[in-house]
Structure formats: C-alpha cells, structure tokens
Amino acid sequence: MHRSRGPAIRWVLVAALSYMLPTVQAASCVAGNPLRVVQSIDLSGPQRWVGVEYAEGAQLLLRRVTRNGGVHGKTVDMAVTDDKFDPKQTAANVGAATMSSVCAVFGTMGTGHTMAAIEAAGNVPVVAPLTGTAAVRKPMDGKAFFVRGTYNDEVRVRAIIRHAKAVGLTRFALVVPSDSFGSPVIPVYRDAVEKEGGKASHCCQCPQSTPRSLDRWWRHCGLQSLTS
Question: CA 70, CA 98: separation in Å to the nearest integer?
C-alpha cells in the first residue's frame, strides 16, 4: 500500500466532515468516538474478487489512520456491507446506514453503484469511491470526495496502446459493457489510439444480459475476423 495514502485519506475525511457541519446529523456524528463510516461493496457477487480486496485494504488503511492519530483525535470504525454489485442493494445498504449517526460512506465500487450511494446518502458524504468515470464528478460536486483520478487522468489506455505498439501490434478493438461504466471509456480509447498513431478498428458494447466472459463478449462482437 502506498505510504502517502493514509494522510491523504485522513484529509479527505476531514474535508467530508466539514461538508457535513451545517447539518443536524453532523452534530451527532462528530460528537461520537469512534467516527462511524460504512462501506457498501461487492463481497459475494460477480466483482467480489475486487470488492473483497478493496474492503480489506480499506480496513487496513483506516486502522493506520487511527494509529497515526485518527481524524481530529478520533478513531475511525468502518462497517462493511455486501451489495453483490447491485446498485439497488447499494442504495438500500447506504440508506439504512445513514439513518443512524454515520459520518461517511466509504469506498463504493462501480459507477452506477456510486451514483446510487450518493443519492441514498443524502447529506452524508461519499468518500473514496472506486470509479474512474468523469461523468460521476460534475453532478455530484460537494457530495463525493474522490482520491482516484478519472480514466482521462490516469491515461492507462495510452500506456497500454504504447506498449502494444512496441511489440508490433497496430490494430486495436475495444469491448466494454453497455452501461454507465463502459460508455465513458469509448472516447478515451479512441482519443488514445489516435494520439499513439494506431488504428481503432473496432468498438463494441455488450448488453448487460451478456455474461461477463471475455470469450462470450468476443463472439458477441464478432471479433474473430480481426485476428485472421
């Protein structure tokens, strides 16, 4: 885990609590010790391999924050709930948690899930959601506090294409889900391929009903012809 992340999270939590100060709920939140936060994330659904590790890493990080003095001297206690990667369940989990003196929603995962959490949280801030979609940022200014950049900021697509070209690949295809996660990636991909001098030969969005299997997505998009 990156050594600077603990202080960053601590200051993000401070900023989030400052956002809450004008609310009645803030009074009961900041009066308590420990400060209570909740995480709704996939622990048993299709993205559990990411969710479990993120939840465990977040717990380790918050323990480190507490060991280093906490947030304004208060310890941080996080309850983790399973949303099975279903935005409706995310909203239900967050809505139930924010009925009590929860100070923040921490570390949601997924674009639709983060948007559902922000809406369900009301005046409770959402901290460190795991999504790189830029579209989440603007409508949610002041209610969500990000420590991850957007896909544009991360420019991971350009790095992948640059490496692929270095080993002799010049034609590229993109396969993404047809949802709020996949759609924003398309212009980033096309821009990256153009800037790296490659050819964006194919771009395909798979409907949610298509099982998330690379082989099935490959066949659904008819990409076999690109490899011949």
Answer: 21
